[in-house]
Every structure is written in structure tokens, then in C-alpha cells.
Amino acid sequence: MITAICFINTNPAHISSAGNLIAQIDGVRSVYSVTGKIDLVAIIEVADHDQVASVVADQLGKIDGVTSTETHIAFRTYDKRDLEAGFAIGN
């Protein structure tokens, strides 16, 4: 499983509509509107790097109002839920 974090800039009038359309793309786990220099953050979970390219370049980047994207591939996860589950084994 590949997890990618995609930072997305949009035209201000398209933040909500772009966010809703991005959330409907297969492989997109969640989309957040955020403060700061970017408008949206999408969490992408797919099987391989080719699917990351498909989600970002072929679909997400073509949504009306999206002006730019910056994608980061995760290589390690630090998740409190995973740590707690590990300690719960045998209880």
C-alpha cells in the first residue's frame, strides 16, 4: 500500500467544489480544507506508484479550479492507533 499526501491549491471560489470532487476519486481516503499557503490536503492510499500518478495527474489535477499540486510519498507511518493495537495483543 502506498500512502501519498497531496497539497492542492485552487481558485478561492472552487475550494469547496474541488474538495468534494477530489473526495470522490477512487484511492482518495480523505480531503481536508486547511489554513496557510495551500487550500486542500488529500490523503491518497493506493496499491502502487502508477496509481498515485493516475489519481494525481490524470484525475485530481484536471478538476476545475485546481491550480497546482505537490505530492509527497510516505515511507513510514507513526500512528498512535497502530502503537496501541500492538500493545493490546494478548490482553
Order of helices and strands: EHEEHEH
Number of helices, where a helix is a run of at least 4 consecutive DSSP H or I residues: 3
Number of strand elements = 4
Radius of gyration: 15 Å
Which terms summarize this structure?
four-stranded antiparallel beta sheet, 3 helices, 33% strand, Alpha-Beta Plaits, 32% helix, 91 residues, 4 strands, alpha+beta
Verbal overview:
This protein is α+β, with helices and mostly antiparallel strands and 91 residues long. The chain has one domain: 2-Layer Sandwich (Alpha-Beta Plaits). The protein is built from three helices and four strands. The chain has helices at residues 15-23, 49-59, 80-88, and strands at residues 2-10, 28-33, 40-46, 66-73. A four-stranded antiparallel beta sheet has the order 2-3-1-4. The two termini are 28 Å apart. The model has no long low-confidence stretch (mean pLDDT 92).
How would you summarize the topology of this molecule?
Blueprint: E1 2-10, H1 15-23, E2 28-33, E3 40-46, H2 49-59, E4 66-73, H3 80-88
Antiparallel strand pairs: 1-3, 1-4, 2-3
Q: Concise description?
A:
With 91 residues, this protein is of the alpha+beta class.
